[in-house]
Amino acid sequence: MSSSANILIGLAVLAWLVLRQTQRRLVREDRRPVVLLVLLVLGVFQLATYLKLVPVSATVIVLVVASLVLAAGFGFVRALSVRVWRQDGQLWRQGGWLTVALWLVAVGVHIGLDLLFDGAAKGLGTGSILLYLAVSLGVQRFVVLSRANRLGSFA
User: Fold this and answer.
1) What residues form the membrane-spanning segments (predicted)?
2) Residue 127's closest CA among 137, 114, 136?
3) What pLDDT score was predicted for residue 149?
4) What is the greatest pairwise CA distance in the chain?
5) What is the reported pLDDT for 114?
6) Three-class SS of residue 46?
């Protein structure tokens, strides 16, 4: 898959995620993380395809790991920006403008690092964007569920 196709797919997924996160939604512990799993599988496939095309060096491995640690960090911070509350016996969650801003900053940092390390790992950011989004979303989901769990039983 080309770099521009990866960017377009990543941006489309980001727009969809941001839209869903700004909507008021029920928090359900028993809901399967289908979107997260699809992103994870596609992200691993995307990264594997990228790694077949470039020489894998210690620098590339360190950059991938650092990128995923950043994704997790942004997911944690972003989860704290999501409002979680109980209404009529049900748990709800909704992200706001800060959640959106943190998503944009997270993706901007990911792409910025790609530009910064272009010589060492050309295209790594676009080759790992879906995995980056999956890790970030997964950590955010875990933290939001943990916060909701402290409020009581799920719907």
Assistant:
1) 34-51, 58-77, 97-117, 129-148
2) 114
3) 87
4) 56
5) 79
6) helix
Asked if residues 46 and 111 have their Cβ atoms less than 8 Å apart, the reply is: no
Domain that holds residue 46: 3-151
Give me the long-range contacts of 11-17 (CB less than 8 A, separation at least 24).
Answer: 13/39, 13/130, 13/133, 14/103, 14/107, 14/133, 17/103, 17/133, 17/137
Q: Whole-angstrom Cα distance, residue 63 to residue 113?
A: 9
Instruction: Give the total number of structural domains in the chain.
Output: 1
Strand 83-87 with 25-26, pairing: unpaired
For the chain (155 residues), the mean pLDDT of every run of 10, in chain order, is: 72 86 85 89 92 83 91 97 92 95 93 77 83 95 92 65
What gap in Å lies between CA 9 and CA 31, rounded to an integer?
Answer: 25
Closest CA to 10 of 123, 121, 99: 123
Residue 4 is predicted with a pLDDT of: 72
The full DSSP string for 53-88 is HS---HHHHHHHHHHHHHHHHHHHHHHHTSEEEEET
d(CA 60, CA 85): 42
> How many residues belong to the chain?
155
